[in-house]
Amino acid sequence: MSTDDPSSVSIQTEASPIPSVPAWFGEVALVAHTLTRQGLLADISERVRFVRKRFGTYEVIDFLVVLMGYALSGEPTLAAYYERLQPFATPFMALFGRTQLPHRSTLSRFLAALDRASVEALRSVFLQDVLARPGSAEGVGGLWDRQGQRGVVFDLDGTRQAARQRALPQSPELPPPQRRLDAVCAPGYTGRKRGEVVRTRTTLLQAHTHQWLGLCGIKTDMSRVIELAHPFPLGFLLSAVFPIQPYAF
Question: DSSP string spanning 136-180?
Fold first, then answer.
């Protein structure tokens, strides 16, 4: 801008693209700072181990922080999330004390190979952290009846969705085909949805604080759901509702 003529403005532009910082990056930075200050990231790095080939130099914590960012971002797909994250991969991983962002295909292989023991170890770390800082009982919320007695509600919800299966190539030169969804899908009624198999799951939610307590697959019995709810206030209510022998979904 010229000082002699205040009304004259000179604007210069160039065609090189400069990606903008995602709107959710600030929230991720806040969560990363909180988890680091509480020592939760260090506990996960020390207590959760999963060894497998073709992971390179990555650890469980590398994949976990990527999934945390995906959950906070609100992006519709993992591809869209990686597209927004890629220009800021280095500062994103530095927020959690890591150096290299795992590739999307590496993340897919990690999730496909992750075993039950590692998931339980990770869940126990988060559970112990929640129980170490329970907060006041009034902050949990609840429902009050006419006599002033409070009840804490757990939401046990079963969902189902049709899944499509493509035809896999089969020939003597190729290895036997394998489907990743075989462990979580089964034949069933698909209704008006297009698909060959049905995937069902059961979610357990603390209704007032919106804390996800568990995600159970198609072959999970009720005793597992009750076990997930017991450490929380009034988790014994599920035992009273289901006093019979556990059954499979």
Answer: -GGGG--EE-TTS-EE--EEEEEEEEEE--PPPP--TTSPPP--G
